[in-house]
Write a structure and sequence with these properties.
The chain has 551 residues and is mainly alpha-helical. Helix content is 64%, strand content 6%. Helix 17 packs across helix 18. It is a multi-pass membrane protein.
């Protein structure tokens, strides 16, 4: 695996990767290669887009609208060479909740608002901060989403007849158990067969489109045997053969208030998911994405998707990885994948009506299994108690409470864990054994602070310094190993300087970095009544102390 550079040149921060690729030179051979790659990605995206849409509580055609319009715009405008945009499994829970609460019109409005928010996040260069989401949080919420997706497909996979399926997982499981008598053996066979075909193809012929082959086989078996199971056609009718005319979502005061919380959730998850996917593509290709341009493109893609009746667009890890592995030369392959999906709608949309919903449930079961990051989850549980707590809390809140709540609480818990760990790094150590102290007795004390001196460490380290400062007349504190100081640390030093301001006492700070000195002075280190001297080194301060003693 090649390693990408750490950050893009600032002058190119808002340049789409498509322009970069075209400037580098893009010829007929590249176009032919990207055409093959685009077909490969489209074959993967076709069943997934419809399955994710159905699981999200909307018609399969809206999944295709999202993949076509959103996928084209993500590739054309994005900051990643290889990102493939479209509907993602991670959004199933949120989209289904939004549809249940606000209806289709509310979903489209929330998607449009989310697009505006993503453009703003990218334009204000906030993409770099979104990537700071702690790893245990991303693993926890991804595993939680996988469990929810899997639970949402039990009813379809078993062909059950439900009067109403609750959104919350525990009531959902209770409703499924109550309807266990309606299980259809034919649907179970189709769902199980779909899973087996996908896994078998992946094992024996990994280059073949296992999901599409499984769905086609299930559709053929359903039609040939006349199986009494629900299909896309029986539930949703015939798929449209063209994109709808673009139209702005319905906007009103009440509609905006209802859609806004969902839009915020879409924005948060979309930004995390798309940048995570871009980072995966960077690791596979050795290239480097432009975070803020990617977010702007994601925003435009969401607005475009909403205009055509689609829903949330984000970078999709599985399809992006397929794009890289298939040999993509750049964003053109992603644009072609969207156009090929459009061609499917124009030519072969009626064929999708034969696809059994149980087969799509099998597809999503495989997606959930693959996205669960099982090895990473168990690895975090074994790594440390802190990481285990973060990943478990995030996972349980996502599954049993709310996706956004899980992310926020997990992030806060990770922050507290980080503060605790960093507070144990900073320590105060004696530096009194050197020969330069010979003859100075107990009137001079030299101590060194090691590590960041911030609010998490200021209370402990500050109290240690206060106890030491009660003895010597000259107190030297070396800052040569302090990389960072915050206002709490500055206040602790100011209080120490106040204590050392009695006649005959002197406090020296040595080797203080310019930025830290500026912060200290800004917090009153040089004010009246605070006697504090800055020197370049401990030796200089000791020489001055020796001179003051006449020796």
């Amino acid at each position: 695996m090649r390693v990408a550079p750490l950050s893009p040149p600032r002058s190119q921060e808002f340049t789409p990767k498509l322009l970069t690729v075209l400037r580098e030179g893009y010829g007929a051979a590249d176009l032919r290669a990207d055409l093959v790659v685009g077909m490969t990605v489209a074959i993967v995206a076709l069943p997934l887009s419809m399955a994710i849409a159905i699981a999200s509580g909307v018609g399969p055609e809206r999944g295709l609208y999202t993949a076509i319009v959103g996928g084209f715009l993500v590739s054309a405008l994005g900051g990643s060479r290889f990102q493939i945009g479209g509907p993602a499994g991670a959004f199933i829970v949120l989209v289904a909740g939004c549809v249940a609460a606000t209806g289709i019109s509310g979903l489209i409005l929330a998607t449009f608002l989310s697009g505006l928010m993503l453009v703003a996040v990218g334009a204000f260069r906030l993409g770099s901060y979104i990537k700071f989401i702690p790893y245990p949080v991303t693993v926890g919420f991804t595993a939680g989403i996988a469990v929810i997706i899997l639970a949402s497909q039990i009813g379809e996979g078993l062909g059950m007849t439900l009067a109403g399926e609750p959104a919350e997982i525990w009531p959902k499981l209770q409703a499924l158990w109550a309807a266990r008598a309606t299980i259809s053996p034919q649907a179970v066979a189709l769902a199980g067969g779909t899973v087996l075909v996908i896994w078998g193809v992946k094992r024996l012929r990994p280059g073949w489109p296992g999901m599409l082959l499984a769905v086609v086989a299930a559709a053929v078996a359903t039609a040939a045997l006349g199986l009494p199971v629900e299909t896309i056609g029986s539930r949703f009718g015939a798929l449209p053969r063209v994109l709808p005319a673009p139209a702005l979502p319905e906007i009103g005061g009440a509609a905006l208030l209802a859609a806004l919380p969902w839009a915020v959730s879409f924005t948060l998850l979309g930004a995390i998911e798309s940048l995570l996917s871009a980072v995966v593509a960077d690791g596979m290709s050795g290239r480097q994405h432009r975070s803020n341009m990617e977010l702007v493109a994601q925003g435009v893609a969401n607005m475009g998707s909403a205009l055509f009746g689609g829903f949330c667009v984000t970078g999709t890890i599985a399809r992006t990885a397929t794009n890289v592995r298939a040999g993509s030369r750049g964003p053109v392959s992603g644009m072609l994948h969207a156009l090929i999906l459009l061609g499917f709608m124009l030519v072969a949309a009626p064929l999708a009506g034969f696809v059994p919903l149980a087969a799509l449930a099998g597809v999503l079961a495989v997606v959930a299994w693959n996205m669960a990051e099982k090895e990473e989850f168990w690895g975090l549980l074994r790594s440390s108690s802190g990481d285990a707590a973060v990943v478990l809390v995030t996972f349980l809140l996502v599954v049993f409470r709310d996706l956004t709540e899980g992310i926020v609480v997990g992030f806060a818990l990770s922050g507290l864990l980080f503060i605790h760990r960093m507070s144990t790094v900073a320590r105060v150590e004696s530096d009194e054994d050197g020969p330069a102290l010979a003859g100075l007795g107990e009137d001079v004390a030299v101590y060194r602070i090691r590590g960041p001196f911030f609010f998490g460490a200021a209370a402990t380290a500050g109290s240690v310094l206060d106890r030491i400062a009660a003895r010597p007349r000259v107190f030297i504190v070396d800052f040569s190993e302090v990389p960072m100081l915050d206002s709490s640390g500055a206040r602790a030093i100011r209080m120490l300087a106040r204590r050392m301001s009695r006649p005959g006492q002197t406090l020296y700070l040595t080797a203080v970095a310019p930025g830290i000195r500026h912060l200290l002075e800004g917090h009153g280190a040089g004010e009246e009544g605070v006697h504090l001297e800055f020197r370049d080194s401990v030796d200089v301060a000791l020489a001055e102390a020796r001179g003051a003693r006449g020796g």
